[in-house]
Write a structure and sequence with these properties.
This protein is of the alpha+beta class. Helices cover about 50% and strands about 15% of the residues. It contains 5 helices and 8 strands, in the order αααββαββββββα. The protein has a 4-stranded antiparallel beta sheet with strand order 5-6-7-8, sandwiched between helices. It has a two-stranded antiparallel ribbon with strand order 1-2. A two-stranded antiparallel ribbon has the order 3-4. Strand 6 and strand 7 form a beta hairpin. Helix 1 packs antiparallel against helix 2 and helix 2 crosses helix 3. The longest helix is centred in the N-terminal third of the chain and has 34 residues.
Amino acid sequence: MQARLRLAFIAAASVFLLPDVALAGMPSVLLTDWANLRLKTLSFFLLSILVCTLFIRLIWNSLAKDFPKLPKLTYRKTLAAVLVLCLVFMLLLTMIAGARELLTPGAWRKTGLLYKVDSKPAAEINRNDLVVRQRKILDLHAALAAYAAEHNGKFPQSKTVTIGDTSVWNVPDTPEIQYLYVPGLSVSDKPDVLAYEPEVFNDERFVLFTDGKTLLMSSAEIREILRRETHR
C-alpha cells in the first residue's frame, strides 16, 4: 500500500512539474486566464499539502522510535490530520478577518471578489462616511414622519412597529446594529431626541430630533440631553 502511495505521489508531482507541451496543428481545449490561474494555485497548494504530509509523517514516526507510546502514522492518517488542521486554521483566519472588519468599519472596500484597504485619504473617508450616516438617519426620520402622519402625529411606540422598510432602523454598513430609539413622542412635542446612533462610530454620533434636525454630539452630550428630557 505504501509503495502504491509513493508511486501515485511521484506520478502526480511529475504531472504538476512538467512544462506545457504545444502540439502544432492539434486541437486543444484552453482555459480562460482566470480559470488557468485558479487551477495553478489549487495544484500548487495541493502539492504543498501532500509534501507537508510526507514530512510530518516522517518526523512523527521518527519521534515514535524514541517514544514507544506514540502510535505510528500511515500516510492516509497523516493526510487526514493535516486536512483537519487546515480547516481549523481557515476558521481562525476567518474569525480574525471578521474581527478586523468590526474594529475598522469602512476601512475595507470590496473590489471584485476580494476586499482591499481603501486607498482614499482618511479625511475624505471620514467626510464621505458622515454624509452617508446623515443621509441614513434622515431616511429613518422620513419613515417615522410618514408613520406619524397616519397616526395623529404620534411616532411609533417601539421599534417593533412596522414603518415600511424595516431596514431603516439599521445603521449604515452594520445591518446587525440598529439605531437607538426614544418611544412615546409626537410631532407636536418641542424638538426632543427621537433616535441616535449607537456607539459604533467613534465618540461623535448623529442625533435625530423630532423636527427632523440632526446634530453630531458626543456620548456625554447625548446622555446629558436624555437625562434632562427624562426629568422634565
